Design the sequence.
């Protein structure tokens, strides 16, 4: 890890101005950034600590009601607090579950919502500076495509990069259609749909989000979605806990008897970014909640999957995970 | 089924009791000192630089940027490192003399033949090999500078595809675990004459030990004497080897390890970092602390090799084995040959006249493998006990009945009687507690909601070995005893069990015993490997305490002023801190009073203890039985193991609490082996791909259900004077097979390659 | 047998080694001894060793190997220095004033810190720049033994309360020569520690390498094993994944701060009783995690505990004992009216 200048920001405005400088990173929980700094994957010369921002402005870490029925979650709210918030548990169980099934108790106490959705891939070649990686160094090559790629993505991949987006919360958020609030160095606030926050690797795997330098996520709005109450997150992994997803599904349904009025579907562990599957949603809306419906939706969700040598099983696993999630949420 | 009860051994005062660990308080308060935690003034920090190619040569290392980095004291490379007079040369060695299994002379030979990478040459033989060392005033400075070293390589095509790498010719195979080929009877005929045969290939992957404490060394010179604070299972091996590297006599090197944070075989002897730290300390003139990163735990400090085991079983219609063939092919490095002795148990576990075992090696450009918890028996029982299970199904026979049908009343390989066995009692105990009699033998017959339920079992076994050991004991003027032996505490509970042994022999309480270990100043003991400590060090402690008692008794009998003067020696007992003759109240005195009257100085005895003639006359092994229940979600490929029931016969239990913990620990390892663990190597570069604890999966708390353990009462004084046989490794044996067998029972799907990953169950 | 007054006129290092058994203690004492010997030119500095309670007073099996005047097994001296059963070190100058001390909690003081303190008192003429403020210090003339004891007592208490402040400035002078190192003040186990650190020093390394608190362990350094778990403002967190400088102003509790003097926290005792450890390396993190878990809204079943504790890896496989320990403490707390009191 290289040496760096550390500054503790006291207010949002100065934080984002400092963050706009070259080679500067924000640190909140530090659970992803400091990990990557130790690997020399991240080498900022300046680190801006934003943990104290909520002292000046408590809304940055708060969970507040929105007029119209949604919930605003401050970007500095800790994963643990959001997961166990009674309103989140009751009205957005998929969000609560996606948080509790992620990481560990200690990590959830440290990590913030804003930081969590921005976490980087676990691709072992990205995390190993001895191996070529287009995401770290554009043009150097992708070691995963012809390497060990069991944990890599099957959706949203390109010739340059197949790295999986590893987070869980983001999958729930993209399925629900959350809204992201961003504060810019210019002082302006902007909002964007959660689905617009992340980008697939395409020809520029080094760019993962649409955030501009110095921008900070100040809040994420959970929408007043009628399907949200009946939602869940299902995660399949290689051990019972403390592991990233092999495949996961975030589902939310609004039911009319045994008919699905409408549904939201997010897939995790299998895509290069948080993956909302409108293909699946279209095949669920208005359909009976039966196995046949679920299988058709799952087939559609994975129709564009492009597996590699070690991760072909994810096609089957992702479908079955989605089917299981739909089965349970409609039960 | 008959239940044979062995006669109850005489119940000693504290031996066998579930005493709390005497080092418990230190461990739960953060007060136990591990190697990197000794506060030595003026210490410098070292970080290893490792190769990024798998095979070739280091052409040059540009250290200019590293040397200029803040706080850097020196950067060592193969080009500027001092020549070590005793450093071994790389390359496969000629075969060592054959021995009796993995801890025999051949194994000791293997350990002393270990070839570390000490910056003495420019060769690179695996990706991740130490090729440099940066020393700086702080850890952060050393770590940063290590990343600034620029290496130019001459890259050669590495051998990484074990399916294509050539097999070693027989005369080059290193015969650990017996000879390369062992035959009795005629296997071909036995198979030909069998009513039912099973022949399958079973595969276990590369694994890494990953103890929680990474390997660490703190090296400090004073003149030409070296002290190493070391995380190790073998202080003597470290001392002897490092001394040899520097051309020093062993008395010039002192190794200290009061607590070691796990080893499991990876710390049985030194690797490279000990000598590198010492070399750096000598060159820079300051103590040097070298702590490996977790990534560096993959490659430079050993692991379990990959095995491909072909097992053929033949049996008559009623389940009598007519033939067993077990061929094991395992990987090793190109630095030294090391054989995983996976066929060891096959020659002795079941009665069978026709048996053939064989080893082959494949040399690959990865890190050198080594002993890893039950080396051989863990991988070998996976293959053998899976094959036995397949045979049972082919015969439509209960798996336990099949084992009992082929029960060996004496060692079928050597013909020698067992020193003790009790395996039938193990099967009975575990099966009963498990509820095995309620089993529906049909695969895929039992469901619980979405879960398929499966039951499987396997035999467990591990050799009971013993090595020479020494101890010294003192009775102090205040009636407390001070006992020392140069053994190690790696979590087995050695501090505690040895205190109990000494306490009982002296007739005092464990709290009145101060047992010390962990320094090469103390009498020499074997490494804490091979489950030998209880039998070896335990015997030495027992013998020295008995000898001390005898000496005190003699002192009393010969002292005209002692109340015991004139008594008969055989009448004297030690209990409650005093000697008493014939149980008489007027013929008794405390140790303290005796010593006070006789000079007031501690009374001391030293012993050397070694295995006796019994080790030649008996076949010495521990046995056990493992019964496992799994639940499989067939659509998602998830396996859960809610309960495991075991019974083991391991000789006298020194401490019921710590012994149970050893079995539990071994069983947890078995769950990891079966379901999770696998070291992944990039096939093009040889790079360790999952070299951290997030991607190399060991069991977490949620992976483990209930583990119900039991010990069959047994005291085996053929093995050791204290009657113990060792319990550290048998716990893992049989577990992976019992899980795979249970998965078969649940799903009808036989998985023959570990780990049993999700995709292996999805179809 | 010597008396403390026999050493008037020499600087003295008083080491109390407490009642608890610790096999590493001999190494510490040996290190102090070597240190004192190596400080050449330090006239008459002696290491005096005092046993607290307990039978293990002499530190070497071969009595001749340590030239260590044994002061006494006299508890009275320990009491005068306010030491009790804790290990402690006092550095006393030639006039009898306690110039530096550290009392408890687990083992003896970092020899590097002791060396610094010794080098201060050993200088024949104390440079004003190097002078260490000792409360209640009077001009060094006409000391009586009674004065010495009284002053030593007062000074000892004052310094014991802020053991590192006394040499914080000196520590700053010895800071590594980078532009980013600065004095970082951490509140650890109720005590203020001032350490000179670069921002990239993690809290874990600050504790282990700079503050001499080696109870928190480094298992992976990447937040993947839980061995480094500490409490920050009452929540369990991974000290390897945060920079020390980020924790200024927070209340940090490490494993060393869990027990109250001799009294173990119920969770520590439960781990011992239920054998929730083997090699002990993950244990600090397990215990810190377990204590915090009882303050988190988990369900009460064994499965809940397993999930809650899955962020702490134990390669020795002591999980069943760990779960049993947590459940035992939970049941005891429920019986006693709830709450996670120590």
Sequence:
């Amino acid at each position: 890890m290289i040496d760096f200048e550390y500054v503790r920001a006291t207010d949002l405005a100065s934080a984002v101005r400092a963050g706009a400088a070259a080679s500067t990173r924000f640190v909140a929980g530090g659970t992803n950034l400091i990990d990557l700094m130790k690997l020399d994957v991240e080498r900022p010369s300046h680190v801006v600590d934003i943990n104290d921002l909520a002292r000046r402005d408590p809304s940055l870490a708060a969970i507040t009601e929105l007029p119209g029925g949604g919930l605003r979650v401050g970007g500095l709210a800790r994963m643990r607090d959001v997961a166990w918030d009674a309103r989140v548990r009751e009205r957005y169980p998929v969000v609560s579950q996606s948080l509790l099934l992620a990481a560990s108790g200690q990590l959830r106490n440290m990590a913030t919502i804003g930081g969590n959705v921005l976490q980087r891939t676990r691709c072992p070649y990205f995390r190993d500076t001895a191996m070529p990686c287009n995401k770290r160094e554009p043009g150097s090559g992708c070691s995963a495509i012809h390497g060990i790629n069991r944990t890599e993505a099957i959706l949203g991949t390109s010739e340059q990069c197949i790295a999986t987006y590893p987070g869980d919360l983001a999958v729930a958020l993209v399925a629900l259609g959350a809204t992201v609030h961003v504060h810019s160095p210019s002082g302006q606030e902007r909002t964007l749909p959660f689905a617009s926050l992340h980008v697939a690797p395409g020809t520029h795997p080094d760019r993962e989000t649409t955030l501009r330098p110095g921008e900070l996520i100040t809040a994420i709005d959970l929408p007043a979605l009628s399907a949200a109450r009946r939602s869940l997150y299902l995660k399949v992994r290689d051990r019972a806990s403390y592991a990233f997803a092999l495949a996961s599904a975030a589902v939310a349904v609004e039911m009319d008897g045994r008919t699905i009025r409408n549904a939201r579907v997010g897939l995790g562990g299998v895509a290069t970014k948080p993956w909302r599957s409108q293909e699946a949603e279209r095949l669920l809306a208005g359909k009976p909640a039966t196995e046949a419906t679920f299988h058709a939706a799952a087939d559609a969700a994975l129709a564009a999957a492009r597996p590699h040598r070690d991760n072909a099983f994810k096609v089957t696993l992702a479908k079955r995970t989605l089917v299981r999630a739909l089965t349970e949420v409609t039960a | 089924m008959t239940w044979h009860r062995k006669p109850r051994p005489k119940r000693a005062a504290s031996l066998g009791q579930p005493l709390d660990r005497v080092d418990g308080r230190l461990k739960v308060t953060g007060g136990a000192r591990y190697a990197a935690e000794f506060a030595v003034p003026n210490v410098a920090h070292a970080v290893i630089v490792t190769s990024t190619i798998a095979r070739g040569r280091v052409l040059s290392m540009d250290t200019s940027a590293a040397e200029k980095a803040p706080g850097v004291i020196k950067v060592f490379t193969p080009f500027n490192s001092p020549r070590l007079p005793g450093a071994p040369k790389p390359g496969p060695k000629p075969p060592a003399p054959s021995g009796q299994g993995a801890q025999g002379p051949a194994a000791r030979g293997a350990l002393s033949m270990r070839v570390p990478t000490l910056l003495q040459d420019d060769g690179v033989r695996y990706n991740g090999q130490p090729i440099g060392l940066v020393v700086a005033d702080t850890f952060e400075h050393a770590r940063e500078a290590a990343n600034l070293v620029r290496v130019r390589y001459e890259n050669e095509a590495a051998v990484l595809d074990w399916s294509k790498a050539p097999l070693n010719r027989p005369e080059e195979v290193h015969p650990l675990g017996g000879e390369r080929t062992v035959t009795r009877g005629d296997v071909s005929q036995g198979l030909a004459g069998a009513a039912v045969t099973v022949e399958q290939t079973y595969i276990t992957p590369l694994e890494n030990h990953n103890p929680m404490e990474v390997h660490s060394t703190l090296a400090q010179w004073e003149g030409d004497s070296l002290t190493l604070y070391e995380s190790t299972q073998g202080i003597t091996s470290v001392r002897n080897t490092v001394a040899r590297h520097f051309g020093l006599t062993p008395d010039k090197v002192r190794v200290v390890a009061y607590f070691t944070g796990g080893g499991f075989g990876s710390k049985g002897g030194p690797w490279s970092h000990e000598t590198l730290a010492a070399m750096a300390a000598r060159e820079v003139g300051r103590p040097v602390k070298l702590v490996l990163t977790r990534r560096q735990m993959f490659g430079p400090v050993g692991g379990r090799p990959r095995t491909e085991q072909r097992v053929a079983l033949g049996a008559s219609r009623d389940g009598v084995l007519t033939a067993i063939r077990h061929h094991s092919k395992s990987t090793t490095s190109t630095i030294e040959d090391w054989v995983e002795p996976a066929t060891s148990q096959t020659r002795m576990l079941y009665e069978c006249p026709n048996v053939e075992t064989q080893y082959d090696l494949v040399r690959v450009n990865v890190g050198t493998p080594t002993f890893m918890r039950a080396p051989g028996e863990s991988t070998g029982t996976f293959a053998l006990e899976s094959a036995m299970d397949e045979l049972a199904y082919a015969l439509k026979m209960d798996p336990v009945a099949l084992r009992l049908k082929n029960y060996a009343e004496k060692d079928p390989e050597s013909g020698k009687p067992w020193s003790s066995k009790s395996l039938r009692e193990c099967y009975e105990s575990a099966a009963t507690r498990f509820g095995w009699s309620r089993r529906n033998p049909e695969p895929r017959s039992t469901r619980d909601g979405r879960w398929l339920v499966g039951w499987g079992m396997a035999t467990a076994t591990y050799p009971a070995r013993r090595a020479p050991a020494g101890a010294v004991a003192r009775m102090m003027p205040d009636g407390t005893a001070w006992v020392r032996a140069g053994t190690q505490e790696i979590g087995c509970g050695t501090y505690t069990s040895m205190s109990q042994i000494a306490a009982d022999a002296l007739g005092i309480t464990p709290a009145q015993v101060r047992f010390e270990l962990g320094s090469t100043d103390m009498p020499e003991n074997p490494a804490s490997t091979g489950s030998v400590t209880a039998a070896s060090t335990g015997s030495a402690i027992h013998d020295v305490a008995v000898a001390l008692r005898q000496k005190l008794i003699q002192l009393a009998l010969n002292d005209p002023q002692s109340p015991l003067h004139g008594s008969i020696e055989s009448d004297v007992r030690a209990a409650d801190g005093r000697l008493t003759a014939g149980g008489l109240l007027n013929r008794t005195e405390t140790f303290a009073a005796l010593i006070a009257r006789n000079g007031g100085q501690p009374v001391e005895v030293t012993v050397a203890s070694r295995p006796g003639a019994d080790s030649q006359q008996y076949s010495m092994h521990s046995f056990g039985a493992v019964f496992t229940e799994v639940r499989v979600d067939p659509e998602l490929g998830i396996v859960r193991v809610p309960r495991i029931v075991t019974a083991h016969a391991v000789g006298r239990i020194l401490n019921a609490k710590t012994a149970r913990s050893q079995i539990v620990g071994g069983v947890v390892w078995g769950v990891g082996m079966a379901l999770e663990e696998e070291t992944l190597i990039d096939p093009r570069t040889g790079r360790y791909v999952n070299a951290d604890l997030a991607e190399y999966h060991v069991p977490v708390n949620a992976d483990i259900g209930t583990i119900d353990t039991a010990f069959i009462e047994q005291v085996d004084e053929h093995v050791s004077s204290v009657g113990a046989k060792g319990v550290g490794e048998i716990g893992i044996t049989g577990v992976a097979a019992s899980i795979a067998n249970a998965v078969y029972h649940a799903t009808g799907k036989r998985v023959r390659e570990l780990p049993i990953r999700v995709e292996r169950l999805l179809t | 047998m010597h008396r403390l007054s026999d050493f008037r006129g020499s600087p003295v290092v008083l080491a109390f080694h407490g009642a608890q058994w610790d096999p590493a203690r001999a190494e510490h004492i040996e290190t102090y001894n070597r240190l004192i010997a190596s400080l050449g030119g330090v006239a008459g500095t002696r290491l005096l060793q005092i046993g607290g309670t307990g039978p293990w007073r002499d530190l070497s099996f071969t009595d001749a190997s340590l030239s260590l005047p044994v002061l006494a097994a006299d508890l009275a001296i320990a009491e005068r220095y306010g030491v009790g059963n804790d290990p402690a070190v006092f550095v006393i100058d030639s006039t009898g004033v306690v110039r530096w001390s550290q009392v408890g909690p687990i083992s003896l003081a970092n020899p590097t810190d002791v060396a610094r303190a010794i080098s201060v008192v050993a200088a024949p003429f104390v440079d004003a720049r190097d002078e260490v403020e000792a409360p209640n210090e009077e001009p060094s003339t006409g000391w009586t033994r009674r004065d010495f004891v009284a002053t030593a007592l007062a000074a000892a208490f004052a310094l014991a309360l802020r053991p590192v402040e006394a040499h914080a400035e000196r520590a700053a002078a010895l800071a590594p020569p980078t532009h980013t190192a600065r004095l970082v003040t951490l509140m650890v186990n109720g005590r203020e520690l001032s350490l000179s650190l670069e921002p990239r020093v993690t809290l874990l390394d600050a504790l282990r390498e700079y503050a001499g608190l080696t109870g928190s362990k480094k298992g992976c350094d990447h937040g993947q094993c839980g061995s480094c778990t500490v409490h920050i403002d009452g929540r369990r967190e991974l000290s390897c994944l945060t920079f020390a400088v980020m924790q200024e102003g927070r209340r940090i509790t490490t494993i060393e701060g869990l027990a109250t003097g001799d009294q173990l926290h119920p969770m520590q005792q439960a781990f011992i009783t239920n054998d929730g450890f083997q090699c002990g390396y993950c244990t600090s993190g397990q215990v810190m995690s377990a204590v915090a878990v009882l303050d988190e809204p988990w369900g009460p079943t064994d499965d809940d505990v397993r999930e809650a504790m899955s962020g702490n890896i134990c390669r020795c496989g002591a999980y069943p004992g760990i779960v049993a320990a947590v459940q035992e403490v939970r049941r005891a707390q429920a019986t006693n009216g709830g709450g996670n009191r120590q």
Residues 51-73, 124-177 of chain C have pLDDT under 50 and may be disordered. DSSP finds ten helices and ten strands in chain C.
